Amino acid sequence: MIGAAVLLIVLVVVIVSVAGGGGDDDTSTTRAASGGGTATSSDSGREAGRAETLVLGQYRAPTGKIGNPYVQASDALVSDGLHELVYEALFYVNYQTGRTEPWLATGYEYSDDNRTVTLRLRDDVRWADGTPFSSRDVVYTMEQILKARAPFRAANIQGAVRSIRALSPTEVQIDLRAPNPRFVDSELSSYVYTANFIPLPEHVFRGEDFETFAFYDLARGLPMGTGPYRLTEVTASAATLQRDDDWWAARAGFSELPAPRRVVYTSPGPEDSAVAGLESSQLDYAGQSVPSVAGFIAARERNPKLVNWDGDLGWLDPCPFALTINTTRRPWDDAELRWALNASLDKEQFSRLFNTPGEPTAARTTFPEYPQLSALIDENEDLLATYPTLDHDLERAAQIFESKGYRRENGVWTKDGEPLSLALNLFSPAALGPVWGDAAQLLNQQLREAGIAVDLQPGDFNTVAATRADGRFDAQSWFECGSVTDPWATLNRYTHAPGNDNAGRWRNAEYDRLVAQMGELTPGDPRIGELYAQAMEIWLRELPVIPLNQRPTPIVMNQTYWENWPTADNGYTQPAPFGMNFHQVITRLQPAGDGQ
Amino acid sequence: MAETDLTPVASPAGTLAEAAGIARPREPRRWRSPQLVLGLLLFLSPLILSLLARLLVGQEDTEIFAFDPKTKPSADHLLGTDGSGRDVLAVMIYSTAPTFQMAIVAGLAGTVVGTAAGIVSGYFRGPADTAVRGISDVMLGIPAFAMLILVAAVMGDLSLIGLALVIALFSWPLVARAVRSQVLTLREQPFVTISRLSNRSAASIMTFELLPNLVTFVTAMFVGAISGALAIAIGLQLIGLGPIDTQTLGLALQNALSAGALSQGLWWWWLPPAALLILFFLGLFLVSLAVDEIANPRLRKAGRNG
Amino acid sequence: MTLDYALRRIAFFFVVVWITVTAMFFLVHLAPGDPITDQVTRMQASGQALSAGPELIEEYRRQFGLDKPLLEQYVDYVKELAQGNLGYSVTNFPTRVTTLIGDALPWTLGLLATAMVLSWVVGSLLGGLMAWRSTPAFARGLMSSVMLFAAIPYYLVALLLLYVFAYELQILPTGGARDPLGTSGGPFAAVLDTFEHALLPGLSIVLAFTGFFMLGMRSMMVSVLGSDHLLLAEAKGLPERRIFLRYAMRTAILPQVTTLAIYMGYVVSGSILVEVLFSYPGLGKVLVSAVDARDYPVIQGVVLMMVVTTAGALLILDLLYPLIDPRIRYGRD
Description:
The structure holds three protein chains of three kinds.
Chain A: H1 2-24, E1 53-57, H2 75-80, H3 82-86, E2 91-93, E3 100-102, E4 105-110, E5 116-121, H4 135-147, H5 155-160, E6 161-168, E7 171-176, H6 183-187, H7 202-205, E8 229-234, E9 238-243, H8 248-251, E10 262-266, H9 271-279, E11 285-287, H10 293-302, E12 306-307, E13 315-316, E14 321-325, H11 335-344, H12 347-354, H13 371-379, H14 381-386, H15 394-403, E15 407-409, E16 412-415, E17 418-419, E18 421-427, H16 429-432, H17 435-449, E19 453-459, H18 461-470, E20 475-479, H19 488-493, H20 509-519, H21 527-542, E21 545-549, E22 552-553, E23 555-558, E24 562-563, H22 582-586, E25 590-591
Parallel strand pairs in A: 1-10, 1-11, 18-19, 18-20
Antiparallel strand pairs in A: 2-3, 4-5, 5-7, 6-7, 8-9, 9-10, 11-23, 12-23, 13-22, 14-20, 14-21, 15-16, 16-17, 24-25
Helix pairs in contact in A: 9-10, 11-15, 12-17, 20-21
Chain B: H1 3-6, H2 13-19, H3 34-53, H4 88-124, H5 126-141, H6 144-154, H7 160-186, H8 190-197, H9 202-238, H10 249-258, H11 267-295, H12 297-304
Helix pairs in contact in B: 2-9, 3-4, 3-11, 4-5, 4-7, 4-9, 5-7, 6-7, 7-9, 8-9, 9-10, 9-11, 10-11, 11-12
Chain C: H1 2-30, H2 35-46, H3 53-63, H4 70-82, H5 97-131, H6 137-148, H7 154-168, H8 186-225, H9 228-235, H10 240-266, H11 272-277, H12 283-293, H13 296-324
Helix pairs in contact in C: 1-13, 2-3, 5-6, 5-8, 5-10, 5-12, 5-13, 7-8, 8-10, 9-10, 10-13, 12-13
């Protein structure tokens, strides 16, 4: 009997040691054979030291194993650095200057009717394996997108493009289905992080099924791009990229070789470990979800080399927070009541919550206040004087409620025995971070004080998204992405253009007409300002969405090892961890002067 | 025995089933053990104090931006304020009772259902037994915490009591199984056999003969179920799941941890709820140890002498 | 009879697995939201207007078979499962669910199983000593304090450990399984690095479960100590050490083996919280992020793994138990 027991124990111990051993040499590790599958081997054997390494804390642990940006496993790319450092864009949109900067392309021209675009490409670009990049790759990628049943991040391209053809190895002509002066900016550039055109190497894809090919085999040098780095290792804790010293742009003298020889994308972990990582300079960069402003300030006390975008103030995310109101549900279908709701909210407090203890960042409108858009809002300040979205004014709210026949009973506005209630569908802390737990309580607090009975319905992202699609809410927390330089995209969110995320179901024919008219104008056209004022007049009067916060996002950059980070004073581009623009950052980083 | 998956907390109740053997009918029990007194004190005094303190501290102190955020403990705020300007002590005062309520409801629901099922199953045998055993065995095989994560994630607006009932759904089988095995031995005891022969109804035998003899045992299960439910609920809240519209200690702890109280050195934010929870668990543990010894006097002797 | 019992027991195992899998299937599919809507909404939410949004959702739902009636999806799923096919992750398509699980499982097993066995060995020994009458009183007092850890959920212990060792003293990492920068200095440094990262999560589990196993061992020892064969051994005047190890521990350890076996089954499903707290890249992390993204095939795959290990451990135990302890007959009550 003891014999059997011992046997069982031995068995367990053996299993455990096998399993434990498996834990030690991580099975998910795939090391690329040095120079395997590539014509040029960049890192001549020597491991880059810490001072030559850039360590980025991304908001998600690397998942890897997919290189094809058009299968729908999208976010994996963002956290492995593929999007930013391995692939390159035809153009980079700079939120700060508002310019569309050519990269793989040299320029473009629209036909007079805005239906045809002619792209000119560089002639000195090479893929990482040395094969020249040409119009063949662009045409191949675009044609596959057009043929695909569902090209994940390029569905808009599929809808917009009729055909594409190569005019020469460096010239491509794209025929559009409808006039679209924003096509290059929004579809062929690094406009926002999810939807853009990434050229793929035709010579690698040839013979593969475009829609299911993972494009991922580190030993073969896949995923392959034209960028300055190659992905060489992915483990459960980090994705490592090595610099390609033969990068085309350096050889062509178009750009300096980026300084970091090695880049490691890793998860910063939760708030506390992100702060610890930045403090100890294990991390050179962390942003988007962690740390919070408070975490940044605490970390900076112990590591003065840390900087944020603008002092304590984070970089403004392109998607401000707002409350979407379902304008088809009574009583909130009444614009005046929506204004009463707006006046019931103390947005300063939300600003404090999202941005402790930085400057106030309550949102005037749902536009992210990048320089171009901020200027536009300022030019039309009289609109905001008429429609003061920032005013917290309980008296005004009370007047409106009273004028609509409500009486305050036991602290709650009541009409015909029915209390004024608001089904408030909110992100839960699990969905979008801990601050939403407090945001829920704060909204509840403020609205209760204003006499509105709140029915709080927190949900994770998925539940909120499903509720949004069905319209089962009176008000819902959401983020309003759209414009970054030109006002059309945000305005267009609230129209009935097909596929629009108009979850509030607001409808105004005059507004739709004005926005459609703006859509036909080239960005920068002087008539846009006038149309903006007219459309915003309607929007503000009706207030289908209540702007809440501009959403400053701490992007913490560490100057211990690397300098020349983009900050408000040195705003050469946006510092976002997402989107392809980090490419523009890494080529400008310099090793820290005092030679750590 | 399958408790860990549900609860990482050990409860002596599990071992009780093996070690206790047959509970002797109507034996005078030694309820006045120091462990029991200390356990109940640890467990109940925070609750009573918190209810009394509600008279002194208003709920408005738990509102966001009631005060300046992150002030150190001082005479004004004995435990300081948290990252969103709530008074930490006030938050503790207003979270204790709901936390208790949740744990007790979950423990009670699991124990009552489990005991009823266990008695019926053990007394009648036959199809009722097969059904109860089948269901509880299946339930014990299911990875409960994983299921609870899913349930809590997809039901974002689950209330505190709802959460308690969902937890009870996974804890009753354990009780049922243990009670059943006790009943199996009890029903063969002479006093039960005599009752049966004297034509008393089954319901009356179960209620008046079996149940009183199970009191100690069921109490031990109940205590275990409370601490199990508490452990699970707090665990879910640490992942960011569970209700956010009621102040609870788990929510306070989650707030502190996710906002970076550890790395910012704001010990007065995370430590008090954690410490209070630890007190609860220790109190419950002592109570269950004491109940365990009452049911199994030999343990008591061994614990004492030497 | 024997074979009959074994077969019934095995059949029961499959019933448990089937019921869990079924419950899980309907729970995740009937919940609001689905992985496709989630992804497309995320894209739409963080991008510009997606004119082809609805079509895209329809197409992907078709590709993953989510457009079929739920019952048909269920039948398909069970059919595939019977052939051992767990399918593809939706959020990480075209990565297979088995790949995701295979990457995470060694971490979970390595951490949890090692910790569990360690706490079993220490806990049994201490539990035995605690009930042993010639153990000095101060040692016994010390042991009772270890036992108190059994009362506290391990995540609270983990929290205290994290604060002290990772944030205040800063001598151990705050999370993760390995240094993201890798280690230089050969395999030994890599093992050391892995060990360093596993220390705090491992320790919190060991503390909690040592106390738990102590409790069980102590109460077993108490029953054993009063038994006749031990009294006999004492009467024979055998050396104390010998009586403790050969007579008392040996008898009391058997139920402990049972408990360990059962707990080994919970290793996989019990890992979730520890992995979340320490950002440990195991199965629990996979599950939590899959739940967040409603990645049906991954959720189903991970839960399947969990139920197979929990119910599997019980099955193996029930089948082996009669071999270990002849007093137990088959078909025990």
